[in-house]
Amino acid sequence: MSRGPWRWVSGWDVMVTRPLGLLLLVVACVLGFVVLSDEVHEGDTQDIDERIVRSLRRDEDPALPRGPWWLSETARDVTSLGGFPVLALLTAAVCGFLLVARRYRTSLFVLSSIVGGWILNAALKNLFHRPRPSVVPHLTETMSTSFPSGHAMLSAITYLTLGALLAQFAEHRRVKVYLLAVALVLSVLVGCTRVYLGVHYPTDVLGGWVAGLAWALFVTVAARTVRRRSPALREEAQRPVE
């Protein structure tokens, strides 16, 4: 009997719940980031990057973005979802919930995983040190270098890590899929706004997504490995929330 539209979820679920499948995805993301960063470093993507950024502004005035008047304001609101203050508050709230639920080890693991991803992003930015786009005026303030996009990478790390954590509390597969889909959509929206606001090239955002996904998958593999080797953490993860 056909399982309808959820049939594809089963195959994906099998692949990403096996350690080997997760490791293969991590390797694929790392290789993809290496190839992309090499292209960016060599300047091979510069022309297409600048064309895309310019295409999002009006011909008569590059300071004016295309689209209705409210779109730029909406983009600034959405892009804040990938900013450090929002992500830090969200991480603190989730870790606080885990502490209240007496999942102390899980809380420490989540906090260290997300902070570790933030440190990795800072290191990558300092390594590549790519200047911000200069072909159009920026529609929001920036404080760091361009590649990889911090908003794209940090939102992918934070939302995917927290989404995977919340999915563990869900019993039904469709709820798990919904939580991970929301995490992905939020990350995609944040990254797209960075290009629309003129503060990142498309390859900056793509690099941030790939690096963030690689880190989130790596953390998932690490979490399962630690859980198998730590009876206390395994017992904590299986204990119902009171």
TrEMBL record:
The chain crosses the membrane at residues 78-101, 108-128, 148-170, 177-199, 205-226. SUPFAM superfamilies: Acid phosphatase/Vanadium-dependent haloperoxidase (SSF48317). CDD domains: PAP2_like_2. InterPro entries: PAP2/HPO, PAP2/HPO_sf. The keyword Membrane applies. Keywords: Membrane, Transmembrane, Transmembrane helix. Coiled coil: none annotated. Residues 106-220 form the Phosphatidic acid phosphatase type 2/haloperoxidase domain. It holds the Pfam family PAP2. This is PAP2 family protein.
